[in-house]
Write a structure and sequence with these properties.
heterotetramer; A mainly alpha (290); B alpha+beta (369); C alpha/beta (414); D mainly alpha (301); A: 290 residues; mainly alpha; MetI-like fold; 13 helices; globular; D: 301 residues; 71% helix; flat
Chain lengths: 290, 369, 414, 301
């Protein structure tokens, strides 16, 4: 462990250390603090100024409003119905891209063939393609595939552009996975899928966490694809939040906006908080070994 | 036709040939060791036997049946890996039964066999543990158990002892030998440790540079190395190899060598094989145990010759003392009795048992006598 | 271009029949604020009364540009919405692609030609066919003022540039912000529109922004316009960049600033703050443009689903143009009806003034599409002009450079 | 190890299928990437030579879009902004991430808790945090106003309103979002370093500073590389960030190629120019990423 050298005796050093740590905590927490504090104030307090101040009058009305009665379209539905839309899109998309990424990583490291490395390079380069560029051709393809304006279409799009990173994660992880285990399983008579399922997958926990966190965050937070490839009944959360926040005229209810924004971010926050402690372990186990 | 036949097998990666035409044939119950330095092609050959690497050309057959294109699981082989390759997510019994499960063996039968094997290897108390909770020696046993339980035609061992500490390595070596004697199965065993090769095998293939340098019984390999590589690689301390010249002395052919003090000495050969080669430069090969002090010399030998040579270093090793002198510019080590009074700087009589000496051609490095 | 259009139309036909029930309308729009949505709800209930379902597809952001992106994706994928909220040249562009349904039958039945101002018809008709249903007319050359501030400083409503500058100077001297402005390209351009109209008059405005005459664009009058923009900049506080328009309006409402140049939608902010027109705040045309109205109009275009316009599309178009909806919607929205024959009874003082101004301007040929709001030239040129105006307003270009860049911008994007 | 290639002319169809299985498994991905990445790149390349405006159109216009592109000042701004932004963003993120990782690695209390705080911004999109950031940076209500309220009246922080400085505010917000993630990568790298080596260095008398500088940091190269890929990817795709914070302003001061491309393709109905800018952008990415990928992947062979 790299920690062994740290002497806890040097108390001035420790004070500086903790001061720095707390300082950075503040830096990272401030925006969330502002959002949270202002989501619990009545609008009049916000417009009166003092964005850093705690509410004089605490209220959860903005949260209730954002959840169930804020105006995000013709109907004042709040964000509630869009939550489900996002979930039924995100879960399959994350699952698919993770599983396929794992299979790809498995093939690329344990069953390599001529050109596998180049193929991987090409795959990785795909991560860098700007999404704005693919919008129109993607729309055309979805139309041709009959997936336009549907949840499966959205899932497909996120899956397609999620493969690059999920393959990267799993490939780097599996590269460090002992090939002898695969050979042993072959001699034991396990086939391609059985080896994957019984030998590699059970050991893939750490990297799966990294991959799922990454994919979940990216897909949940996507706006461009969500807006462009959804239908009136499949718009995801981010589109609704955008409609709430970006309304063109009328009074901007900042407290409701903030409440809605935090609400929309809750699932990803939850994923980070719950899975966060596996995250460093997962990164350690593979992806930063390069 | 033997039990395991390797016929003209080669392996290439693209343009690079890593294994050249190789022929090995062994009988059922033999213990074949593939030995050589790393990169010699021994592991490649083992993987080819296992079916983990394809054969570029030639054929590998088990029980007379060609194995080309047969997948590893269908070759009826079992393999023990260097890292043991125990499945980290399964218990010991899970590891042992996995192969049987894959081959569709019934549960009751699997349990019976696990029980037998764990008795044999004394790992019964470990069956419910995960590999991560085992010591190196225990893992080794589990890995062997996993192989044994399959009751295969051929066992393949890929440097199975190299991850153990020295003491355990010796113990496990003995255990493997016992197991082989008890079960009589055919084994192909890869190692870079020549002592393991000599102690375990019934047959050794010494490999280097993608070629089998010599195939033979341990005694053949040790006593009659086919070339300088085999001579130098097998045995510890390794065989002394030093330049000499064939001369004729008193009608007898002899090896003339130069000593560190500038004088020359000639040592008669035990045979007249090189009688026609007078004047030829050769490399003389003679094992340390054939260079002794006068009293330690083999009394049965007809060809012990004394050379007075300056002593450079002495290395007491308990049971013996290794004494080093420079001959032909090379360090030549003799194995003297422990209680011989000899010190660095002395000129001391070295007894050469020329019956054990071999000669190599300096260019081809092949043995000529 | 044609080939793709055909493909698209065919795909649209296919998808439309597949995904949307014939009797439902899917409406893509960006009206998600409370007032707007309430206004749209009038339309929705009207349709539901006729048994037509409303499938809501709101995409807010960027004054509709986000929705236009989505529209592009939807059309390309062969799954266009039934009806889409659109502005100005976007309608004509889509009409050129042959993507819009022909509404002539409805227009004929309802006599749209007679009640919709000609200047507006230019954006609702293509090749002599009605392709969209106008909802409202926003006029953009309004100035909003805090009456209390003006009274306190003894400022009368200015009627020309010099009076305006004098008024601004007075406010500045008092320590208040003279002009509340949000530094976003479209807001800069909204001010520019009014200044140009005031400086050069309607002919100049038409030649420069509608006809895109390069000589006019590079003329001294244009340079004068930019110089006046610089003057206006000097009366704006330093913290204007990126400010949302409604925050600027709030400055006027709170009495921190005296004037704001903004379209009629700003009125909603005043009303929401409990202010009364003429009592608490004033609305008047930008000094020097008392006779002119620059406008933009929200419309709904129907996407073609084959040879004939869909029954539900026809119903939607008819409902939009009905006087009752036009009145109900625009009272809420702050704009004025697209039909000039709607009763002004329900409207407040500013609304009544707006309706009267519109009718007068339409009748006298003084109604012009607003450059800032995409009703003078296509999006490419409009945005290129934004770039120049904004760069000049932020001090990046001087007036000389600005007119050169303006000419270049038009050349590149024409 | 390539069983899959085991040539077996006598093998049954099932056997051959089995041998080809890895490739079959990989093939959907290959097909998807071929169409949805490289196909689209080719399509965009083609579009950049056409007169496409509102929708793709296939009238060939040669290099005209490129010529126009380079006449547009905003494009120059966007490109130079990307250089400034990209460099600062990557360097600061790496430096801060490394610093935080080292701080966290000092056997501190509540490490998991603090780590989560540092990491969470990655979970939020700028649609969510954009308004908060805008407020912060706004001199009228944000940091400047707050600090002035504390009595430091001469304090100024109006970068977001300043043409010269606005791009740096984008860097601040971007660093806020990603540096925690980079920290996690470095922390993982630190934890992976052999502890015996650390002990050896201590016995050799290395100070903590020297220990990190001479022993630890050089061993974090793989972590640096991974961080670089992720950060470069983020920098190039930064779009939400700019839209949420400045909308490209003041003026065009914070325009980035991604926002430029979007606005030309969609807002301005100049799809041809938008495509041309996308092509230039891709070529730039390729010029940076391809040599990197090449060296990384070849090394591992």
């Amino acid at each position: 462990m790299a920690t062994t050298h740290a002497k806890s005796g040097n108390s001035i050093g420790r004070i500086v250390l903790y001061t720095l740590l707390v300082f950075f905590c503040i830096y990272y927490l401030l925006p969330l603090y502002v959002m949270l504090v202002n989501s619990l104030k009545p609008l009049s307090e916000i417009t009166a100024g003092g964005m850093m101040a705690l509410p004089q009058e605490w209220t959860i009305a903005p949260w209730l409003s954002a959840w169930s009665s804020a105006q995000v379209g013709v109907e004042a539905t709040g964000l509630r119905p869009y939550f489900l839309n996002s979930i039924i899109m995100v879960v399959p998309a994350v699952a698919l891209s993770t599983i396929v990424g794992a299979l790809n990583g498995y093939v690329l490291t344990k069953w390599p063939f001529r050109g596998a490395t180049i193929l991987f390079g090409l795959l990785l380069f795909g991560c860098f393609i700007p999404f704005q560029m693919v919008l129109i051709p993607m729309a055309r393809m979805l139309g041709l595939m009959g997936l336009a304006g549907s949840v499966p279409g959205l899932i497909f799009v996120h899956f397609v552009y999620g493969i690059g990173f999920s393959t990267l994660y799993f490939r780097n992880y599996y590269a460090a996975f002992p090939t002898e285990l695969v050979r042993a399983a072959q001699i034991d008579g396990a086939g391609f899928f059985r080896i994957f399922w019984r030998i590699l997958l059970p050991s893939s926990g750490p990297i799966a966490v990294v991959c799922i966190i990454w994919q979940f965050t990216n897909i949940w937070n996507d706006f461009l694809f969500g807006a462009s490839f959804s239908d009136f009944d499949s718009q995801p959360m981010t589109v609704a939040l955008n409609n709430l926040v970006q309304s063109s005229t009328g009074v901007k209810e900042y407290n409701v906006h903030f409440a809605g924004a935090i609400m929309a971010a809750l699932p990803t926050l939850l994923v980070y908080i719950v899975a966060g402690r596996y995250f460093v372990r997962g990164l350690m186990a593979g992806s930063v070994k390069g | 036709m033997g039990f395991l036949d390797i016929k003209q097998a080669t392996k290439s990666y693209g343009a690079v040939q890593v294994l050249h035409e190789t022929d090995i044939s062994i009988e059922e119950g033999e213990f074949l060791v593939l030995v050589g330095p790393s990169g010699c092609g021994k592991s490649t050959l083992l993987n080819m036997i296992a079916g983990l690497e394809n054969i570029t050309s030639g054929e590998i057959a088990i029980r007379g049946k060609s194995m080309n294109g047969v997948k590893p699981a269908d070759r009826n082989i079992a393999m023990v890996f260097q890292s043991y390759a125990l499945y980290p997510n399964m218990t010991v019994s899970g590891n042992i039964s996995f192969g049987m499960e894959m081959h569709g063996i019934e549960k009751s039968e699997r349990e019976k066999r696990i029980s037998q094997v764990s008795d044999l290897l004394q790992i019964k108390h470990l069956l419910d543990r995960k590999p991560g909770q085992l010591s190196g020696g225990q893992r080794q046993r589990v890995a062997m158990g996993r192989a044994l339980v399959r009751e295969p035609d051929v066992f393949l061992f890929d440097e199975p002892l190299s991850n153990l500490d020295a003491k355990l390595r010796v113990d496990m070596r003995t255990e493997i030998k016992k197991l082989h004697q008890k079960l009589g199965t055919t084994i192909v065993y890869v190692t870079h440790d020549q002592i393991e090769a000599l102690t375990l095998s019934t047959r050794i293939a010494v490999m280097f540079g993608g070629y089998v340098q010599q195939l033979g019984t341990p005694k053949e390999i040790y006593d009659n190395p086919a070339n300088m590589f085999v001579a130098g690689f097998m045995g510890s301390p390794s065989m002394n190899l030093f330049p000499a010249k064939v001369v004729s002395e008193n009608g007898q052919s002899a090896a003339e060598v130069s000593l560190a003090n500038g004088t020359k000495a000639s040592i008669p050969f035990a045979t007249e094989e090189l009688a026609s080669d007078v004047g030829r430069d050769i490399i003389l090969g003679i094992r340390p145990e054939a260079i002794t002090d006068r009293d330690g010399a083999d009394r049965n030998s007809q060809a012990v010759h004394i050379v007075e040579a300056p002593v450079e270093v002495t290395e007491p090793a308990g049971s013996d003392t290794f004494v080093v002198s420079q001959i032909g510019g090379k360090d030549v080590t003799g194995r003297f009795r422990a209680d011989v009074a000899v010190n660095a700087g002395d000129t001391f009589p070295f007894a050469f048992n020329m019956e054990k000496a071999v000669a190599f051609d300096p260019q081809s490095e092949n043995r000529i006598a | 271009m044609r080939k793709l259009t055909m493909m698209t139309a065919a795909a649209a036909l296919l998808a439309a029949s597949a995904s949307v029930k014939a009797e439902d309308v899917e409406v893509l729009h960006w009206w998600t604020s409370g007032g707007e949505a309430a206004a749209l709800n009038v339309l929705k209930q009207d349709l539901e009364g006729q048994g037509i379902g409303w499938q809501d597809m709101p995409v807010a952001g960027g004054g509709g540009s986000q929705a236009m992106t989505v529209l592009r994706a939807r059309v390309t994928s062969g799954n266009p919405p039934t009806a889409v909220q659109m502005l100005g040249f976007d309608i004509l562009d889509w009409a050129k692609e042959g993507a819009l349904a022909d509404l002539n039958i409805q227009a004929g039945l309802e006599g749209w030609d007679d009640v919709v101002p000609a200047a507006l018809q230019e954006f609702a008709k293509h090749d002599g066919k009605w392709v969209s249903a106008p909802v409202n007319v926003h006029s953009t050359n309004w100035v909003w003022a805090n009456k209390a501030v003006l009274d306190e400083l003894g400022i009368a409503v200015p009627t020309n540039w010099d009076e305006f500058v004098a008024a601004l100077e007075k406010v500045k001297a008092s320590g208040k912000t003279a002009i509340a402005h949000g530094g976003q390209p479209w807001q800069d351009a909204t001010v520019f529109d009014a200044v140009a109209m005031s400086t050069g008059g309607p002919d100049f405005y038409k030649k420069a922004f509608i006809d895109l005459d390069e000589e006019t664009l590079g003329s001294d009058t244009m340079k004068e316009t930019f110089d006046r923009m610089a003057v206006i900049r000097s009366y704006v506080d330093d913290n204007f960049s990126g400010r949302d328009w409604n925050l600027a309006t709030a400055m006027v409402i709170n009495g921190d600033a005296a004037f704001q140049m903004m379209g009629d939608w700003a009125k909603g902010e005043f009303l929401n703050a409990g202010k009364q027109p003429d009592a608490d705040f004033l609305c008047f045309r930008f000094p020097g443009t008392q006779d002119q109205v620059t406008f933009n109009a929200d419309q709904f275009a129907m996407f073609a689903q084959g040879s004939e316009v869909g029954k539900e599309q026809a119903a939607l178009a008819t409902a939009i143009l009905s006087p009752s909806f036009q009145s109900a919607f625009n009272v809420v929205k702050g704009s004025v009806p697209a039909r000039t024959d709607v009763s002004d009874e329900a409207f407040d003082a500013c609304g009544k003034k707006g309706m009267a101004d519109l009718k007068k301007a339409a009748d006298s040929g003084n109604l012009y599409g607003s450059m800032a709001h995409g009703h003078a030239n296509p999006a490419a040129i409009k945005n290129a002009m934004y770039d120049v105006i904004t760069a000049h307003f932020n001090g990046e270009y001087d007036s000389e450079t600005a007119i050169e860049e303006l000419v270049t911008a038009v050349q590149i994007n024409k | 190890m390539s069983i899959s290639e085991t040539a077996n002319p006598q093998g049954s169809v099932v056997d051959r299928l089995r041998d080809a299985l890895p490739k079959i498994v990989l093939s959907p991905t290959v097909a998807i990437v071929a169409i949805f990445v490289y196909g689209f790149i080719l399509f965009t390349l083609y579009l950049s030579f056409t007169d496409s405006r509102i929708l793709p159109s296939f009238g060939w216009v040669g290099w005209q879009n490129y010529e126009n592109l380079f006449r547009i000042r905003a494009w120059d701004t966007a490109v130079s902004n990307l250089v400034i932004f990209g460099l600062l963003y990557i360097i600061i993120c790496c430096a801060l991430g490394l610093l935080l990782a080292i701080l966290l690695d000092q056997r501190i209390r509540a490490e998991g808790f603090i780590r989560t705080i540092y990491l969470y911004p990655m979970a939020l999109s700028f649609i969510v945090t954009g308004v908060a950031w805008k407020w912060f940076l706004d001199p009228g209500i944000g940091i400047e106003a707050v600090v002035q309220g504390w009595g430091w009246t001469s304090f100024e922080f109006d970068w977001i309103k300043n043409r010269e400085m606005a791009i740096y505010t984008i860097v601040i917000a971007a660093v806020w979002q990603t540096s925690g993630f980079v920290m996690a990568m470095f922390l993982a790298g630190l934890r992976g370093i052999d502890s015996e080596m650390m002990k050896a260095a201590q016995i050799d008398g290395a100070s903590t500073f020297a220990l990190y500088r001479r022993i630890v940091i050089p061993q974090l190269r793989p972590a640096f590389m991974s961080a670089f890929v992720v950060l470069a990817h983020m920098a190039i795709k930064s779009y939400d960030l700019v839209i949420a914070l400045t909308g490209g302003g003041p003026g065009t001061a914070t325009e980035l190629p991604a926002t430029f491309m979007y606005s030309y393709t969609f807002t301005r109905n100049q799809m041809g120019i938008g495509a041309a800018s996308a092509v230039i952008m891709l070529m730039t990415i390729a010029a940076i990423i391809v040599p990197y990928l090449w060296s990384e992947l070849r090394e591992k062979k």
